[in-house]
């Protein structure tokens, strides 16, 4: 009898790829995916455990599924991912309703682990070593719209930021081979992908673990340009001190690599950056931004800032606001510091209160909203290439798309209110109106991409 599985994926795009691998493995074994948890035989949630809000989201999702399971005791409840890796023993003790816990690198064995459960009444915990590295032969079912997908370039991270648990949860940096990544990209293109987003904890670290004659991000990008014709290639998570001239020149020379630079600066106060173990200064960041804009005047720069880090004071926040006002970055995310047990920073003195963190975040986001609106208004009257997502999530009277300056599920979007197109088309859109994060426009012409 065919079994149905309901999968809920939480967290970042890297986690989503893990969920796609689990889905691929299960479907290959004969399971059927369902969007109805009540009608499923298997309830599965893939969790994030990076910071406390993500943990709370994961717990809420698990508890919601346990309520469903109460009405169908034969259902199996499976919890996977970072939260399991981080809190395995505690979760098993506190959540006896869960049948199977699997850590971050056990998910490729989901089929065999489910088969081994049988009629066991006690929870099973599987926490294998963090050494898994997917390849192009790993089963994977794409869950994003059919015209876009993520290419996970590495696993783990070997940076040592004082606020981050990723190296402890996900293990050290592990890079896939260039040939394998190109093989997967080719398969994705055959499947109709028009926008390929490269992801990693630190994309610019790709290859650093592969030895003396290693191939790096530049080699990968050249390979993608040579071996595929994917029109949009997007880069996420570029470590500031590894964004070199060679990368900027390659993007400037090849319009298929989108001029979108996601460079998480985290802060701009030299004192706070040093405490975060980020090996650069405000001056370094300013030089990098200047260099990007000199080589690619139309590039979009996205960053994230963390407020409320231990020792941060009003002067540090004022400096950060001054920097934002001077630089006018296109896309900025602001997060509050989460004091995670196990991080070096958790033992630092002068911890900020939650009220201070939230106030600082609100101030920075209000400033960025004005900056974003100002930049978006400059686009009114211009024609921008837009990749069409499909019917808008806001209204079925609108079409939704994104410019090359907007990453899916991260930045704003373009609401298209006139013209004919299909999902996956890359359309020329006349921008007619601007909001704080979104744009409005009408199609001038559309190129069917598949």
Specify the helix fraction band: 25-40%
What's the alpha carbon Rg, rounded to whole Å? Answer: 22 Å
Mean pLDDT: 94
- The SS-based structural class is alpha/beta
Biggest sheet strand order reads 2-1-3-4-5-6
* Main β-sheet description: 6 strands, parallel
Unreliable runs, pLDDT <50, ≥5 residues?
A: none
Number of helices: 12
Question: How much strand content do the residues show?
Answer: 15-25%
- Overall, the morphology is globular
The number of strands is: 19
What separation lies between the terminal Cα atoms?
37 Å
Question: What attributes characterize this protein structure?
Answer:
single chain, alpha/beta, six-stranded parallel sheet, 12 helices, globular
Short summary of the structure?
With 450 residues, the chain is of the alpha/beta class.
Structure, explained:
The chain has 450 residues and is of the alpha/beta class. The strands form five sheets. Strands 2-1-3-4-5-6 form a six-stranded parallel sheet, sandwiched between helices. Helix 6 packs parallel to helix 7. It is globular. The protein starts with a strand and ends with a strand.
Helix/strand layout:
Elements: E1 4-9, H1 13-28, E2 32-33, E3 42-47, H2 52-70, E4 76-81, H3 82-94, E5 100-102, H4 110-117, E6 124-126, E7 148-152, E8 154-155, H5 166-170, E9 174-175, H6 178-190, E10 195-199, H7 217-227, E11 232-235, H8 245-253, E12 260-262, H9 270-275, H10 282-295, E13 300-307, H11 314-327, E14 331-336, H12 354-377, E15 383-391, E16 399-403, E17 414-416, E18 426-434, E19 439-447
Parallel strand pairs: 1-2, 1-3, 3-4, 4-5, 5-6, 7-10, 10-11, 12-13, 13-14, 17-19
Antiparallel strand pairs: 8-9, 15-16, 15-18, 16-17, 18-19
Helix pairs in contact: 6-7, 11-12
